[in-house]
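The protein record quoted in full:

***
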Amino acid sequence: MPKKERREVGVGSGLATVAGLTMKILQLGNCYFGGAFREMGHEVKWASTDPGADVVLSPFLVEAKNLLAALPADWRPDVIVMGDHSGFPKILGLEALSIPLAWYAVDSHIHHDWHRHYSAVWDFVFVAQKEWAPLYALEPDRQTVSWMPLFCHAAHDRDLNRARTAPLVFVGTLNPAWNPDRVELMQRLQARYPIDVRTGAYVEIFNQAQMVLNQSVAGDVNFRTFQAMACGAMLVTERVGNGFEELFQDRVHCAVYEKGNVEQIVEIARYYENHPSEREAIAACGRQAVLARHTSHHRAEALLSLIARSDVSAMVSKRLARQAAIQGSMAQVYDVAMRSYLKAANRGEGERKTVFYNTIARQYAEQGLAICRRLGPMAQAASCPAA
């Protein structure tokens, strides 16, 4: 495939008003779309604490300007894309960069207490859980906030043509502190029906399953929704909001049960175990829908297409002109992060982790204090929790 013509882009030249352009994309956090971006012909570098990243970051806080300095001298990103990693921001000062910024916020249902402040940093916010999207629209005149559901990775989440010998399986975290409803549901269900419950890798077991059970943390349309269907199993999933009914139909793409209703799950499982042709038809329809509309490639394409249609220069200019307000929002984020790490330090996980957590807590505290010192007294009262 011939390389697309390289044209110089950026804030001054109106990034992505030119369609079909090869862009330099700096991917931060979870590398949800790195592979898809590359398949689309873009140049991608991934910066993360992951040892497989192109730029491996310290586990402590990092200045954005130092991150950019670590990139090759002739490689300046046209856009920065942050994939939500369900953790606090570790890269400081992104909001002050004259580079378009896009964030894929996945865990709104868990982290909305500080996500609503952190959204001030971004020009483009893509929210995985539809009902939470309005929370992120802080300044509509300079930001674009869009619902963008989760997805599968088609190359990984696929039907391997295995014999489907397990009637019903569940693969996911089973931590009673994080999701007591799930643990209780599985215990009650195991007493009634031979469900195979596991944690860890899922592709092989999903390929051995006739049906995959799904349960959400907090009404979210989760990754398991798309992964199970992509692997060719029939999804049995909890009824949730967040746009699920706009994506899939009950008894067409999957089977839906009411939250916590073990009797209904057992009824569904027994019926479809004994009616394989109906089960296989639903599973095939679900898989077809996911692969046609809900892969990482579809999401990457939608993200870049929206940026391409936007007046990026105006959006970035307004962000740079409103740094005081954005910094006030970040003071709130840093306060929540500091308290969270101090709490972690007191959990008694050993001296090494305690020192690590306390160090990061101190870094967040220093960042918040520095912001509050820069703000005037009135702004301090409004934005600085520790002021």
In short: The first helix runs from residue 34 to 39. Residues 50 and 246 are 35 Å apart (CA to CA). The radius of gyration is 23 Å.
